[in-house]
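Help! Submission page says 'invalid entity' but I think these are all valid:
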Amino acid sequence: MKTLIVNPQKCLGCMQCMFACATAHSQSKMPFQASLEKPLPRSRIHIGAGQMNEGFPNRCRHCDPAPCLLACLTGAIYRDHDTGSVLIDPEKCINCASCAMACPFGAIRFFTYHSAFGNKTIAMKCDNCMDRRAQDKIPACAQACKTGALTFETLESASKRKTNAIARTISPQGQELSDCQLSDEMNLYNAYKQQLSALC
Amino acid sequence: MKYIIIGNGIAGVHAAESIRHIDTSGTIQMISDETTSPYSRPMISHVLAGFTDSQKIHIRPPNFYAQLNIEPLFGKRITQIDIPKKQIHLDANTLDYDRLLIASGADPRPINAEGQDLQNIFFMRTVAQVLQIKKALLKTKRALVLGGGLVGFKAAYGLMHRGIPVTMIIGSQYPLSMQVDPTAGHLILESLRKKGLDVRVGLSVTSFEGKQTVQGAFLSDGTHLSCDLVIIGKGVLPSKAFISDNDIQTQSGILVDQHMTTNNPDIFAAGDVAQCYDIVRQSPWINAIWPEAVLQGRIAGANMTGKSLTHKGSLGRNVIRMFDLDILTAGLVNPPDNSSYIVISDHNARNRYYRKFVFNNNRLIGVVMVNHIEQGGLFLSLIVNQIPIQFPLKNFLTRTFHFGKMLKK
């Protein structure tokens, strides 16, 4: 199953994901209109500046077991069976912040949004873009991210890319490779292997 | 396997769920002296304030017991545990057990004052008590709250929200003295008074007076206060009257090891009644809070089936959002005057922002936050996991501190 993968080292701190997330959770779903809405739509992904001022994308990891779910006094935090996402029921949330006290990542914020029960301030965090997913769209933050810091893929696919990247670090330099003439048979064999891996 | 759980609170509930998750065939009996199905005890203050009603605070659905094949025994209190026979005595019945969990919770601590049996003097521990308070509130002109701890704080808030004039009498110099340090304490005291709460510090009640219902109280400084409703929040004591010290080791609570086991390998304890290793105090302590009860119940339940899960240790922690103030505390916030502790703090009075961090041996062991508490969980995680701090301590004080700042580049 595809999930949101974060590669913090690729984050530039451009914050387009924050903008996209807020827009995706607005009423109009349109950037300019969203900025005029009341309440102002807020992002559920938070880019912070690391120690060297590098960007760091921080979002809810939808943990299992989820400390916030266990800490919730009202049972407002629950898990969606189909996707495994940890979600917050706005009607039951009493804004007590027990979840924020439990979250080891500091991923929870408190604000109101357009369909929150009675416009009350409640705990808010990433909801895995459930609405977008229902329309076959990928999470807004992954859609917006240009560097690949946020991607929407299976864990296997992301791990494979990382494995490939590491494997390449032990290959000879690109320069050397283009200088060296491989035999026709070797070229055919490499082409065959590429076709095979494209099928997997 | 016969499992018996004494207690119907959140520790017992999580233990039962843990057991069922692992052992689908063993019998589980849950005994409780309350007659309602499991509810969220912290929410009774919301019932008092009128934000919700007693029917809406259940923490499990009505078919919870049936779904997990648990036999509930309501309205019963244990009289005795017969350890050699592995039996418990309940009123007229005797039940056998293979594994026993004592999650009997705690009861309000009584106070030393005459006239306590007058009507309209209440504790606030159960939903039944809050419903009684609500009935009495219809005629209340002035209320007295004893105690500036969590119960007193919430009681005062609820009463004020209902428009009832409240006087809070506390023994310490500021409210929440078990949770906060003097700076935060005075910030809180100031905020409460600004909101119209009459707080009297350094005092206690020596006696109540009235005909059948309470009409006034005499304080330790000799003054008299008229009141027609009293809520006492002077702490809780673990419910272990049914345990004989000869059989099960106790101190303030039932002593358990890191597997939530008592000195008897078939008997476990969890929740407000259990005294286990406290991570920052580094000694057995009772942290009678909801998230601890959850965690301890989960671990105890699993271990009752034969697993060997370890509890790192408990941690005192609280978050409270009332009177336009957000307060988050954890661990040791008032370290002894000892050079081995490092304390850093930032107090911005104009922005009503205060943070204090206590370190020992390069590890965070305590935190107090007033306002901007959203990311407090980060600090708790550092305390619980005892992470050595590898960045400048002053980074903690920035308003923009976040997870990314803790990672090494």
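Support: the input was valid. A stray whitespace character was the problem, and the output above is from the cleaned input. The two ends of chain B are 52 Å apart (CA to CA).
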